[in-house]
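B., you asked whether I could sanity-check this one before it goes into the benchmark set. Here's the sequence:
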Amino acid sequence: MRVLHVIARLNVGGTARYITQLANELPKHGIETLVATGYVQGAEVEDPSAATIKLVRIKSLGRAINPIKDYLAHRQLQKIVKEFKPDIIHSHTFKAGSIVRARKQSVPVIHTFHGHLLEDPEFSGFKASVITAIEKRLAKKTSKLVTVGQRVADELVELNVGEKAQYISIAPGVKELSITPRTDALKNLGITDDGRPIIGWIARVTGVKNPMRALEVARAIPSAHFVVAGGGDLLDEVKEAAPSNVSVIGWAKAEDLFGVSDLILSTSENEGMPIALIEAQFAGKPVVATDVGGVSEVIANHETGLVTNKNTGSIAAALNSLILDTQKRTQMSALATSRARALFSIDQMVNAHVSLYQSIVN
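And here's what the prediction gave me:
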């Protein structure tokens, strides 16, 4: 069997690692795999895992909507399809999904929603309505719709994007990181340990992750030291607006960020099933996160962390409660690791995809 995966770009983050893990593991199950992708743009950086897989570049494919480049990308994709002769085409995220399904393909198409754009500030209002209309049309050209969490599937079905029977939820398989010892991690990140609890935040520094909300929370808790890691279009703005108890360090290894952090904070407007938070749970780090997308499927509320609304005061109160209760943090830490190992294994994710592909081809 041959499967062609298509994604607009493999920028640093969970979606890239999800795809590269599949590309590395599926051949062990007799499934030849090729990843077709474009290039990262602007301040983005390509995920290092992209260097570990076989891929082909679609030069005109990028995240931004550009009718001329999108047309060229579709033509370039069709050339790849003709040469690779896949049994299944598997697209990921909105842009690649629209390019793949612009016209009916000669083989079955699967599309994965790694979250959705409908709560992304960049695609609000009229844009969200247009995207929803497009997704409804594209769903009719799709054999199966995969989501990385059940909540994302439920939200899409509620919007009449596809039929409920089309959906299957497959949790991401995540590799457990080797966390850097605290002393070494502090040195690697250039951070001084002044005795205050350290709250880590790691994501793309862009609107949908709402780093500005993280700064608001930091202002509400001056007794804690916040470390913001990641890069993106808002990085300079975040650096300029950061209060004195926030270190904005740019791109950094998650192993180092988790190594220095007592707690992990997520302030996103929207998520699929965030890999960084799963990695944090593997690392035994309690998480305080906004209740969006599949976050509540990653964090067991009041057991491995706290899931809260988007209100700054609510987030700050949740963080403060764990900062003050070290015993609760210790209990959450142990349960977080064991739960992550049970729910987010790579074997589980890969086997689910193998079964899905076989059911469609058969």
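One thing to flag: The radius of gyration is 20 Å. Otherwise nothing jumped out at me.
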